Amino acid sequence: MTRAAGMLLIHGAWQGAWAWDAWRAPICERGWLAHALDLPGNGADPARDAALDEITLDTYVDAVRGQLERFDGPCVIVAHSGAGVIASQVAEAVPERVAAIVYVAGMMLPSGMGYSELVEAASADVENASGIAPYLVWSDDGRVSRVPADAALDIFLHDCPPDAARRAASLLTPQAEGGRALVATLSAARFGRVPRVYVEATLDRSVLLPLQRRMQALVPGARVRTLECGHVPQLAQPDALARIVCETLAELGITHEDLSAARSVSSPRALNGTPT
């Protein structure tokens, strides 16, 4: 039995820690200490972002490792969408700090492969494999993209509660391409020893189900669970996602520490499910 110190929640491209707001209550009700971070460059910390020359995978890995150090032991990383690449690289860097990775409609890619390469290889067989890409609006220098609200509602949030979907679409921020076109370098000895769970979303219009299943085949060994929902299960079906994640972690012998003894990793609000 592995007792994890908590969960670290990592958002995908164009998002922030707010992307996990609806999921905090159901996961904390199941006894987990959960903390969502804002990745560098997403606008949540202007002073921090102003000091960055560029955003890279290393930038993200350093930020996540800093948050992991605030837990008293190894924790479960829950990664949505493109954050899957970040979680994989963190597991490669510090496998002893990662009790498990949960990919939520995530990019669970093999070493050396970028998501665009996966899409290109599948495009002849998978209709609309490029997902959100055709809808992106780019800066003049091509280094930053943003997602128009109507595209976000159609591609990301089509099955979410309408008011929550509109709020989420309004909170999306510009994304530096250096932090979106990510390629991990992984090994069996480090990343490969970390237990993995893959939650596939059958109605996903961004990371389409055939692409999710290609990644599962390319990186075998994850426990796969299925939700009939779109790209954002933590907003569309937060209770169902919390249930299957906790049940699957328990099957893997991973449980949470007693919250009464756990140290808050951010503020007391991280314990009760309210946004940080």
TrEMBL record:
Lineage: superkingdom: Bacteria
Keyword Hydrolase: yes
One annotated GO molecular function: hydrolase activity
Family matches, as SUPFAM superfamilies: alpha/beta-Hydrolases
Domain AB hydrolase-1: 8-243
Gene3D superfamilies for this protein: alpha/beta hydrolase
Alphabetical keyword list: Hydrolase
Transmembrane recorded as keyword: no
Protein name in UniProt: Alpha/beta fold hydrolase
